[in-house]
Specification:
It is a single chain. This protein has one domain. It has 208 residues and is an all-alpha fold. The two termini are 33 Å apart.
Amino acid sequence: MLGFITFLAFGLGNSSLFILLAGQAIVVPIITELAHLVSSSSPNIALLSSNDISQLISIPATGPVNVFPSYWMAHISFFFGYLLSNAVRMFIQAPDLSLIRGASSDAIKSSINAKIAARKEKAVSVMISTLVFLVLITIMRIIATGAETLAGITFAIVVLGSAGFGWYYAAETLGATNSDVFGIAVQMMAPDSGATKPKTCVYTGKPR
């Protein structure tokens, strides 16, 4: 998953994906290792018998593996938390009302309002599909591997998911405005009256 995010980040030049990659590489290991350190004193909720599937790097396991949480569940929860935060941000993003007030005709105003509605609909569909897919792959993980515990899964979804959710807003606060993984923000663009010039979305840092 990290390799795929890296490929997309460099291939698309998407600032939001670079920020996500940094969180996956830095935040997730720190939180996971701290959780393992704290939970090591409670083996009944943290440890499973030797299972290389639960490890960050799949090697023959020689002893119990700490899955409070497993690295797989930690990365997945952070990833989906970040995507969900992105979708929520695109949904609550306030439209530029000056575009509507400055529109030269009712047709352009109607087109702008339609774009705003389309952006919100897409954001909602992304939020719903993200949550459903997280539930499905978590269930598949439990059934197919037996490498998870309920406590570890709960911790990962609540803590790592919240960390992913907060990571997006922290990045935005530091200057990564309108970092849109899904391309939903394009629905916020106003049409030009009779213009035929193409448009594109580029990253612009927040002024300090």
